Amino acid sequence: MSIIGNSSSFTRFKVIDQVPLEFWGQISDKLRQFAFRDIDDLPEMRTYGWVCFEDMLDSEWRTAPPQKGEYLVFSLRVDTRRIPPAIIKKHVELALRAEKERLREQGGRFLSRERKRELKEQVLLRLRQRFLPVPAKLDVVWNPVKNEIWFASTQGKMIDLFMEAFLNAFGLHLEQLTPYSLAESLLEVDLMDRLDSIESSQFATIS
What we know:
Radius of gyration: 24 Å
Largest sheet: 7 strands, antiparallel
Strand content: 15-25%
């Protein structure tokens, strides 16, 4: 999801580790080290990595650098190969029937569980070669001055993936800025105690 579109959903984070001054000169190298790698010709189901904010096909930052004034701007590209379950089921069944027919011709009767699993893996491998992965580009805006990061997704799985990719690339841990954590950073201890004692309200009308 693009953070500069007509509408955008995003999740805010803060970096909870101390960042050394020399770190900022290493950003470009770290982005390239953990840049996106294509799997169009490989059987993997998913891959992810960093790409240029302006061009998701640019994993070398030839189009533009990640530095934008006091901000760092780049994107997380996630390519996922999606094979419809109905197609998998169909081709697994075809493979099982063909294998059973071969067994009958050879005088065999029993198809082992291990052989069934092997056939399914072979079917999945063949199908992966026929389905191209679907790309997704999720923008990242990092403000080092405020120690804050905006990530253009609110999906739980994408948030977990982003936090993992960020830690792998930069060696820094993130904390998601939920409404509670934002309140915790603004309120005094006695007010936080009062906040913790508040019970949720039921706004739905019960008839």
